Amino acid sequence: MTTPTTASTWEQLSEIAQKHTPARRVRRPGQSPSTAPIPSSLHKLPPDTTPPVLLYRDTNSWCPFCERVWFALEEKQIPFETEFIDLSNKPKWYTDLVPTTLVPAAKIEGELVYESKDILLALEARFPSPSLLPEDPEENAVARQWVEDAETNGFRNLAYKFLRETPTDADELANLQTTFEASLDELEQTLGKYPGPYFLSTFSLVDIMYSPHLDRLAANLPVYRGYQIKGNPRFPRINAWFAALNERPAYQRVRSDDTTNNLLLRRRFGIEPTGNALPLNTADSNAIQYRAEAAERLSDNHEVAIADIIKNSGVQALAVDGDITTIKEAVDLHLRLLAEYLIHGDSAPLPGGRTGGQNSIETTISAVGAIALAYVRNRVCAPRDMSAGAATTFRAAVDQVLASLY
């Protein structure tokens, strides 16, 4: 079994990719995660200056409550640094520091604050400009009440009960759906109390309180309950709200993508899908900044990716006499071809040509590529590994490269 070597080197791919994307990450050798996003406002600090905020958050960037705080920090352009906490093995110093032992927590100019709502309000008090609460006193009071209501009105618990609990019969599930829809109706009505697409007259902490959970529900419910929020004519204001959020750069930095959200729900809670996976929203898949970001992240992490694929994908079964050298070379080649395709699109070479891999690439090499790419497609976690836009673009590119193998 021989491996063709027509792809560019990782160094060449990385150099080209970095020319087309502003996305950069800081390396964290020997730590998890191995990289972290650089806050968009960090450049505002003088050299060798400690950021005013230290955010304690989960290593996998799954936590919706941590996402709230990250969203606000990006919107308010507050320089910050992050300390990642392994939720499956929390360090004793952290459980001693934070009374709840939960994430998020933050040190704001040295003062410890925990619980996401309290952190958001503390950030607003300490860094009042740009404001995420209305200037008008009456609307400000409404905003503060709605921030409180987002924690106490039961919407979140009801939504996740509908999503995660296994009903004993169809009637119980129908009743859960009816109750959940009534709570969405209330949100729909609330969104109509002020002009514009947001809860208040401008984007605010209220939007930040709801966005992580509504995002996850909009991704999970079609797959696990056959229920649509996005595109549902019953909720035009909620859909306009989603569209407005999508235009915000800070939201694009912190949000996850639908595939990540759905894979995590199954892995963490053991819930089995009742419908098909959502189709990829490929509206941004041709945007060079996302294609280049995905290629740059793959180039930067190719050694870790290859080791993970060899260890966990089952591709070792294709090795002859236990020698994985050629298998490893084939995995490396297919990942480099994927990076080429991300950067160059349809002008990039593909392993199986464009008429079917059987006639243009050795069968075993094709099988190695199919296993490796299918595995890595669902290993990417946004925004832990790359932004949601880049992750969606990455998955769409994998689908195209896989199609060339068959």
UniProtKB/TrEMBL annotation:
PROSITE patterns: GLUTAREDOXIN_2 (PS51354), GST_CTER (PS50405), GST_NTER (PS50404). One of its GO terms (cellular component) is cytoplasm. Keywords: Transferase. Gene3D superfamilies: 1.20.1050.10, Glutaredoxin. One of its GO terms (molecular function) is transferase activity. The keyword Methyltransferase does not apply. Residues 136-269 form the GST C-terminal domain. Residues 18-46 are annotated as: Disordered. SUPFAM superfamilies: Globin-like, GST C-terminal domain-like, Thioredoxin-like. Residues 53-131 form the GST N-terminal domain. This is Glutathione S-transferase.
